[in-house]
């Protein structure tokens, strides 16, 4: 039986950030595949109606093929317990993403090798640096024509302001892509173009750069380029420095191709080795960091979601555990509500069914059944000494609309729907004086939130509404 501290030590909780289409979903899916969490690639995103979604729940996501809500996926790999916090890629949902990043200990930044650093990447990166969390970079789509790897690194350094350290180095790209050179192990991981996509095992070849034998494998020009590149890199100013990585000042960079599975497993292994264990969050009551390994349980709500599944009409409050151990049925204290409660239902989100979680540790995320008492940022804890974690900042809405119910007989459902969705943090409500509740002014960060609001009111509360955009 592993002890408590060993359990916490094995936790790696991170979020994947990227600009839409860079390959976040594909990479997530491949990571899950290695963890044995899913049996077959292609089920993370129920795109084009192919399969049921794992990390997407809502109709709108399926229809649009984008991930709107964040979800949490857990799997074990090589003795580690890995928690991936899936963040919505769509720019309209930045607020939800920001909250999710509050619950992560590190981030994986996926960059499209042809496009480099894109807009959404910049925004998300900024939030990560604000929190000072380590950032690992996966430069994806090397099987397609890519920018020069030196240019890509320079762009990351110039635009994002972080030092880079390439852990491996690509040999060619697109049709010419031969694989990557592992700088530490000094071996080549050879890419095979043939074979079924996503399933082939990459061949590892010990490589003495300059050895004429490599000309045959790589072609002479690519072998020459590789030798020159590695010489340049080895002579470059930046050295690998784990301390800098831990403080978000240097990002280890990996090249690969998620679609073909190439470079994903070596990345996962290195990432897990270098990524931090659950961090200590600050208790605002004492201004002291809370040791994740301390005995008593504590955590904060970073996300609330209602009606995720038509078969379970309920609300789930996602809690990031900051210290101790969660046990189903345990007694706890809800700090903001100033009352005791039993943490009756913990669920972990995986595939279609919701596995009941019996125990979980600092670093994990549990979905608590929420009868409507929690708000985002709330703290739950056990033990005599109460703790309180900092509030999660809310973002100023950028768009407003008047939402009016069409059928005034459904006032009760309308009020309930609006209130619950606001509590979830899906929208912000600004009530108009004297206007009652038939019509409400709603503020959002992005326009897609309005669409989600309308669809959810219709699907979950059976209420039709009209939306009138407002100019403020
Ligand atoms: P996202 O979650 O970041 O938005 O990106 P996603 O994984 O959905 O990938 C976007 C598109 O890029 C997908 O193609 C996906 O198959 C492709 N892709 C991801 N990784 C790689 C890679 O390493 N190499 C290549 N060549 N393509 C990659 P799509 O046609 O938009 O969707 P689909 O029909 O394949 O699902």
Task: Report the bound ligands by name, code or SMILES.
Answer: guanosine-5',3'-tetraphosphate
Secondary structure tally: strands: 27
Q: For the largest beta sheet, what order do the strands appear in spatially?
A: 18-17-23-14-15-22-19-20
Assign a percent range to the helix content: 25-40%
Helical segment tally?
12
Q: Termini, distance in Å?
A: 59 Å
User: What is the overall silhouette?
Assistant: globular
Mean pLDDT: 82
User: What is the strand content?
Assistant: 25-35%
* Stretches with pLDDT under 50, minimum 5 residues: 39-70, 348-354
Sheet with most strands: 8 strands, antiparallel
| Rg, alpha carbons | 24 Å
How would you classify the helix and strand content by structural class? alpha+beta
């Amino acid at each position: 039986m592993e002890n408590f501290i060993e359990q916490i030590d094995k936790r790696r909780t991170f979020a994947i950030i990227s600009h839409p289409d860079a390959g976040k979903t594909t990479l997530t899916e491949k990571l899950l595949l290695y963890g044995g969490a899913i049996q077959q690639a292609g089920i993370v995103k129920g795109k084009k109606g192919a399969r049921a979604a794992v990390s997407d729940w809502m109709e709108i996501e399926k229809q649009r093929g984008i991930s709107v809500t964040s979800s949490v996926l857990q799997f074990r790999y090589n003795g580690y317990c890995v928690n991936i916090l899936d963040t919505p890629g769509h720019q309209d949902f930045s607020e939800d993403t920001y909250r999710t990043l509050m619950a992560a200990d590190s981030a994986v930044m996926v960059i499209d090798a042809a496009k480099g650093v894109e807009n959404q990447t910049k925004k998300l990166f900024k939030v990560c640096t604000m929190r000072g969390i380590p950032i690992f970079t996966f430069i994806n789509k090397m099987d397609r024509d890519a920018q020069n790897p030196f240019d890509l690194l320079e762009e990351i350094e110039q635009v994002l302001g972080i030092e880079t350290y390439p852990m491996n180095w690509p040999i060619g790209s697109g049709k010419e892509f031969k694989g990557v050179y592992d700088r530490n192990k000094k071996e080549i991981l050879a890419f095979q173009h043939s074979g079924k996509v996503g399933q082939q095992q990459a061949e590892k070849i010990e490589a003495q750069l300059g050895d004429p034998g490599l000309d045959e494998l790589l072609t002479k020009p690519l072998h020459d380029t590789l030798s020159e590149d590695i010489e340049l890199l080895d002579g470059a100013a930046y050295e690998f420095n784990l301390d800098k990585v831990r403080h978000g000042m240097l990002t280890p960079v990996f090249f690969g191709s998620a679609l073909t599975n190439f470079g994903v497993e070596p990345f996962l292994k290195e990432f897990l080795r270098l990524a931090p264990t659950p961090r200590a969050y600050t208790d605002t009551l004492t201004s002291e960091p809370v040791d994740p390994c301390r005995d008593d349980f504590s955590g904060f709500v970073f996300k609330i979601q209602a009606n995720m599944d038509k078969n379970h009409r309920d609300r789930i409050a996602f809690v990031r555990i900051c210290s101790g151990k969660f046990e189903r049925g345990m007694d706890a204290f809800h700090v903001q509500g100033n009352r005791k409660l039993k943490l009756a239902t913990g669920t972990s989100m995986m595939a279609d069914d919701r596995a009941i979680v019996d125990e979980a540790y600092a670093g994990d995320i549990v979905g608590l059944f929420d009868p409507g008492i929690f708000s985002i940022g709330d703290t739950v804890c056990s033990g005599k000494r109460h703790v309180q974690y900092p509030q999660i900042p809310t973002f100023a809405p950028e768009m407003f609309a008047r939402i009016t119910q069409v059928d005034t007989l459904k006032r009760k459902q309308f009020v309930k729907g609006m209130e619950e969705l606001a509590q979830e943090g899906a929208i912000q409500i600004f009530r108009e004086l004297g206007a009652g509740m038939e019509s409400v002014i709603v503020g959002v960060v992005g326009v897609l939130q309005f669409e989600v609001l309308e669809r959810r009111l219709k699907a979950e509360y059976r209420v039709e509404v009209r939306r009138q955009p407002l100019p403020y």
